[in-house]
Structure formats: C-alpha cells, structure tokens
Amino acid sequence: MSRNTIPSGMFWSPGDGQPSGWREGVRAEVDGHGRIEGIVPVAEGGRFHRHTRSRIVVPGIANLHSHAFQRAMAGMAERQTRGRQDAEADSFWTWRETMYHFAARLGPDTLYAVAAQLYAEMLEAGYTTVCEFHYLHHAPDGRPYSDPAAMSQALVAAARDTGIRMTLLPVLYMSAGFDGAALGERQRRFGHDVDAYLHLIDCLCEDAGDMLHVGCALHSLRAVPAQAMRTVLAALPPAMPVHIHIAEQVAEVEDCVALRGARPVQWLLDNAEVDARWTLVHATHLDAAEVAGIARSGATVAICPTTEANLGDGLFPLREFLDAGGRWGIGSDSHISVSPVEELRWLEYGQRLVTRRRNIAVAADTPSVGETLLRGVAASAASSSGHAIGTLEAGQVADAVVLDSAAPQLAGADAEDLLDRWIFSGNRNLVDEVHVGGQRVVAGGHHRDREAIAARYRDALAALMPD
What we know:
By secondary structure, this protein is of the alpha/beta class. It has helices at residues 92-103, 108-125, 150-162, 194-205, 226-235, 250-260, 264-271, 288-297, 305-310, 318-323, 340-355, 369-385, 418-424, 450-464; strands at 4-12, 22-30, 36-41, 43-44, 47-48, 56-59, 61-66, 127-134, 165-172, 212-214, 216-218, 242-246, 278-282, 300-303, 327-330, 400-403, 431-436, 439-443, 446-447. The N and C termini lie far apart (57 Å).
C-alpha cells in the first residue's frame, strides 16, 4: 500500500513518453522508500476533476555543484582589492584568498548551521538534490578532528534535517599546483593522502541510503597528482559518481599545457576512463576537440553560470556542446544565487550576449528554450548524482516541485509556454510546494523549519564575523 502521494494536477516530465511532456488530472502514488509506484488518473464518474489543472507539478531539480560554506560569504568579496591598473587586478585568484580566509573560521557546528540555511533555500527554490563538493575536512590548522569525518557529518546532518536529497562528494586535495608543490598553510585543512581519503569514503558509505549517496571528488588536476588519481579511481566502486573541477580558468589551462603537455580536458580524456559517471565542473575553456570528446564520453558538464559570472571565469560553449550531443546540468557553486531559474536564465542569456542572437538553447524537436533547459538538467541528474531522479515516472524517486498557479506571471499560460513563463518572467519565486521522497518539505513557498534554521544561521554568522 502506498504511504504517500504527490497531489493531483498537471504533471510535466521529460521522460513520460507524452509528446508535450504534460499529463493532466493525475497524481503520483509513492511507496515506503519514497519512490513513485505509478502516475495514475484522478477521476470522478469517468471525468477528471476540473481543479486538477490548478496544480502545476514538475520534477525536482538537481544542484550538481555546491560548496555549502561559501553561502555565508556571499556578497563579501565585491569590493575592489587591487587597483584597476594592477597587473594582478581582482580575479578568481584574489577571490580565492578571501575564500581561504573565511573558510578558516568554520567548524562542524557553524558549518551545520550554514549548510542547513543553504539547503532550506535550495528547497524553497526548487532544488531537491544537492551534490556537495566538500573539502573542509580538518581543523583550520590542518590537524584532523577526533572524528575525521566530523565536517562531512555536519553536512549530512544538515541535509537530513532539512529534507534535501544529497550526494556527498568528499574531495581529494593533495598539492597546490601542477608542479606538485605542497599545500599552503590555508589549504592544509583540505588535504589527505590517498589512504586516508579512501578510508574517509569507506566510512561515509556506511551511512548511505535512500537520501544519501557518496561519490568521489577530485578537486582538480592541479591538486591531484596523476598517479594518485589513478590509484583512487582503481579503488572506487565502478558505479560511484566522480566529479572534478576542470578548465575553469585560462591560467589553469596554460599551466596544464606547460607541465602536462596537454589542455586539462584533453589530458583527462587521454588518461582516465571518462564515462557517464563523471561530472566535469565548469569546463569553461574548451577547444573543439574537447567539446566533441566530452560529448562522446557521456560525461556531464556542471555549468554554474552565476558563480562563473561572479568570478569572471568566462562562458561555456553551450551551443557547440548541444550540437555535439553533450550532457550538462547546473550548479549554484558559491551560492551568490540560490535559484535554478536564475542559473538557467543566465546560461541562455550569456549565449545571447556572445552571439547577439536569441533563443540559443533549443532543439529541432523542442523550440521552447525553457523546455530545452529543463530537459537538459533532467537528463543529467541521475548519472551525476547516483540517485534515480530527474523525471516523474514509476521507479523514480518522488521529488517534485509544485508551482504557484495563481501567480500573475503564469496567468493564461498553457502547455506550450508554461515552462518558458516560469524561467523567463521575472524574479519572484514561483515555487509553492516541494516534495522530496513523497514528503512535503516546502508549503506556501516556505520551508517547514524556516524560522528555526534562520535563527541558527544568524547566530553562526555572528560567531564567524571578525570582532
């Protein structure tokens, strides 16, 4: 017997076989493990209830790249630190110094409070799964906590308590650059040797279940020596997700060419069995061969438009990647924005600014930009996270977002333009309810524990700020 349902309405799902993706007058029946048993009609006397059209239900969205602690420093790195004529004017690398300084203040308790606030915000925005790329492993001086997994467990607890689905990605971080230099003082809390790292993964896997999967994150090619990468990959379970930062900065590409003899993505494709379990984060600076190579591999690119814009990284070659048949998703990364709508909108707008054309992210069978974008994030969600997510159909987890059908932005919308209206009609959050594993965690646009979570967050920020 089903323990729960996602209430009836108009359901959109890219994997349901319907030409438009829309089904009217249906509900999702949910089993005891939070998976959809079936999508069934809601009928009365052989006719659909008229009120069922008033609920607009879409699949929950996966956030493929998150550094939770950075939510607490959003807006704190927007003052110029170098002169405009300085050869080392403000950039990703100067921002990183600010990030290191802030990261040094966090412990398990403050990390829990910050992550819980972030995850509640994600849920309210329509993210139902987070891939947490976690590298704050040790105490600020680099010494392990008495429980070496204490910082990881703080994130697991925050996800559990807020109700978001998580793929925890503990990060291997071993060197300060492609030359193998030792970690700097502010990087020591990130570091592991290979044996300690694999032990951490083993320990975290003991807690894995329906709501928590564990994957592997290689921080970057510059932070993981080639032999260490090979050793770790050989030791992992064959289906475990693998994520890596790559080709985010031009300087990174230049250093890789100088010291490894190839561009970062090309080197990775040549030296690892990159396939559908891999997620390449950013991959901003690609040549044509790399675009084609990623697409052939089946790997996902996690694009983080608001963070990449905030850091001045550059623009991912989206149209070329779509033409090559590449798989992609989105992440909010540093969380200067926590909104899938904004990530998707600016993914498209960036392409428009470069090409001076409109409606770039479309396909021959999908002329709607909004629908193309939502199909893209759905198609990558399961392989990148390891969870059965992305669509509303039998066997998938019951993660769903209910939009506010009474919102003025959706007035008069129909199946052809409803998704475009959601993505491109302004900045009001149109999420009304969110269900994760069939459990409602957001109602009326508010997380069930919003006030208590915010109070803990305010106390944590007060403790983190300098005197």
